[in-house]
């Protein structure tokens, strides 16, 4: 990986957690970093272009915001890209990713309640012709994952 620009590094270090909850979060982030909002947006675009950034957004405690479940599909290899693209079109889907396993497509499905999830699971099965493996969370573990860039070039 190429060297990170100084602002890119500061942005990652400071805002892996705790993005400002306000009407203008990018402006608040820029102020905290001592740069312009445009410089901050340019940094985010650079990081995204390098695939160093995949998402900016909140992580909600799912039990307070409705219902969610982890879902896995066993997709024939020749259909994987097509099915993944279709699954990603559902606004209730996030964290859609491929795994090296018989169940090779995994995603999180969210909705206002369990009944909504059940309807979506049935729709996905009808839509794809594949039976979803529904893996609702039984226990919640809070892992506040972040990475220090201190030893990176």
TrEMBL record:
Keyword ATP-binding: no
GO terms for MF: lyase activity
Biochemical pathway: Porphyrin-containing compound metabolism
Pfam families in alphabetical order: AsnC_trans_reg2 (PF17805), NirdL-like_HTH (PF22451)
EC numbers: 4.1.1.111
Keywords, alphabetical: Lyase
Reactions the enzyme catalyzes: siroheme + 2 H(+) = 12,18-didecarboxysiroheme + 2 CO2
Domain Siroheme decarboxylase AsnC-like ligand binding intervals: 67-132
Domain Siroheme decarboxylase NirL-like HTH: 8-50
Free-text function comment from the UniProt entry: Involved in heme d1 biosynthesis. Catalyzes the decarboxylation of siroheme into didecarboxysiroheme.
Subunit structure of this chain's protein: Probably forms a complex composed of NirD, NirL, NirG and NirH. All proteins are required for the total conversion of siroheme to didecarboxysiroheme.
Similarity comment: Belongs to the Ahb/Nir family.
Protein name: siroheme decarboxylase
The organism of origin for this protein: Pseudomonas flexibilis
């Amino acid at each position: 990986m190429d060297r990170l620009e100084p602002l890119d590094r500061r942005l990652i270090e400071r805002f892996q957690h705790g993005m400002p909850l306000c009407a203008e979060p990018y402006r608040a982030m820029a102020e905290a970093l001592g740069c312009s909002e445009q410089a901050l947006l340019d940094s985010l675009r650079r990081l995204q272009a390098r695939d160093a950034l995949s998402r900016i957004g909140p992580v909600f405690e799912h039990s307070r915001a409705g219902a969610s479940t982890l879902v896995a599909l066993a997709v024939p290899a020749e259909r994987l890209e097509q099915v993944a693209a279709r699954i990603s079109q559902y606004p209730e889907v996030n964290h859609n990713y491929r795994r090296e396993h018989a169940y090779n497509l995994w995603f999180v499905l969210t909705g206002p309640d369990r009944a909504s999830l059940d309807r979506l699971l049935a729709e996905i099965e009808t839509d794809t012709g594949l039976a979803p493996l529904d893996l609702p969370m039984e226990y919640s573990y809070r892992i506040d994952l972040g990475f220090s860039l201190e030893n990176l070039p």
